[in-house]
Design brief:
The chain is mainly α. The protein has three helices and no strands.
Length: 55
């Protein structure tokens, strides 16, 4: 929800903060990979149903 509010807001201060954060993430490969892994669902535990266990 916070990401949605951050990226859907056109406030110039938030836009500057967002641009700085994106530039920092882009320049740090380890951080970028971590975000990609998190977004792809490759971190953390799988839900019970995805593990083949009953709900």
């Amino acid at each position: 929800d916070a990401f949605n509010r951050l990226f859907s807001n056109d406030n110039s201060l938030l836009r500057a903060i967002r641009d700085i954060g994106l530039a920092a993430t882009n320049s740090l490969p380890g951080l970028r990979r971590g975000f990609i892994r998190e977004a792809a669902g490759l971190t953390g535990d799988l839900p019970r149903l995805a593990q083949g266990k009953p709900l």
